[in-house]
Write a structure and sequence with these properties.
This protein has 166 residues and is mainly alpha-helical. It folds into 2 domains: 1-78 and 147-166, no CATH class; 79-130. It is 83% helix and 0% strand. The protein contains 7 helices and no strands. The chain starts with a helix and ends with a helix.
Length: 166
């Protein structure tokens, strides 16, 4: 199953480079790497959930949010990127803890600590006013409109892999 995830991420990279080559979309290699990280990680977490593979959940969640952070830094102009490193790490750790709770709902401390860390990260970002949410929401809708072929292709790949899993 691991090879399917890796093959899917590699296929996404090939498709994106092809779409960029034929000028259907405009994307750089850093964004392709970020997208490949997120696609690979979604599959990997999906496979690890419920199978007691906590180390895989932890690593895959970190890789997913690393890819998301790479994409955000490419798509948004962040004036002081050093100010989002700490809250990003706190947010990622909070999300890892939430996924560990989802994997084993008997361990409630993962839920409480994860939620607390996510709230702390959001508070830190709002306190330093690094993100203006309305501006970024408008920009994000533009990104979705610009990269809709990627979203459709990723959805098809997820559907095919999940159908083959069962």
């Amino acid at each position: 199953m691991h090879n399917k995830f890796l093959a899917s991420a590699f296929l996404l990279v090939i498709i994106l480079v092809g779409l960029n080559t034929f000028r259907i979309i405009s994307i750089n290699i850093t964004a392709v790497f970020g997208l490949a990280c997120t696609v690979y990680s979604v599959y990997s977490v999906y496979e690890a959930m419920g199978n007691k593979k906590r180390s895989k959940i932890i690593v895959s969640t970190f890789v997913f949010f690393l890819g998301a952070l790479i994409l955000l830094s490419r798509w948004f102009e962040i004036l002081n990127p050093e100010k989002i490193i700490f809250p990003s790490l706190v947010f990622i750790i909070g999300m890892v803890l939430l996924l560990l709770f989802m994997e084993n709902t008997n361990e409630k401390y993962f839920l409480f600590i994860g939620i607390a860390m996510i709230i702390l990260a959001i508070f830190f970002i709002l306190l330093h006013n690094e993100l203006q949410f309305l501006y970024y929401a408008e920009f994000l809708s533009g990104v979705i409109f610009s990269y809709w072929p990627i979203i459709v292709i990723a959805g098809i790949i997820i559907y095919i892999v999940s159908r083959n899993k069962s």
